[in-house]
Amino acid sequence: MQTEYKAYSCVQCNLSFRMTRDFKTHMLQHGGTKSHSCNQCDYSTIKTSKLKSHMLVHSGEKPFACKQCNFSCTQAGTLKIHVLTHSGEKPFSCTQCNYSSTTAGNLKTHIRTHSGERPFTCTQCPFSCTTSGGLKSHMLTHMGEKPYTCNECNYRCARTSQLKDHKRIHSGEKSFSCNQCSYKCQLARHLKRHMFTHSGKKPFN
What are phi and psi of 103, to 5 degrees? Predict the structure, then answer.
């Protein structure tokens, strides 16, 4: 006898579930109830499996290891994504340009460059951005914190991207190249400004 499953649909989003337990677990995300809490920090979750994975952060254990390099991690999903760096496979592709990525999350963030969506907004100024990490880094500018330091001079900054750009001063690396002439530079914004010399446009009209 074949078992029949009733479809359960969430009224707050477009997801539906065949099993009652899956539906109930999903609804906890909307209700904000996180019944499983870490006893070492303020982390909490709705799933015991996620709490179990989180506890590895405190123990330092990384049971999922790559067979091709020395990379190891706490979650099977993270390892699966890492293995794609060896194969070169990027299964998630943008329908508007030739961008592709190893994760759906990265693709979702990329698509915002086309839509102009900037869902993460600062509560202290008009700044907004496409990622939560970008907003977190921005907030450091209000707090005055500069946690990233150069190991070759006394330069400090609030963002890892700023430190990466700064280090090119020491290395002399010019990784941004013009596809119309031999111009090379250290920063993406310098290349963007240079490209106006070919288009004839004025950047500050």
Answer: -130, 150
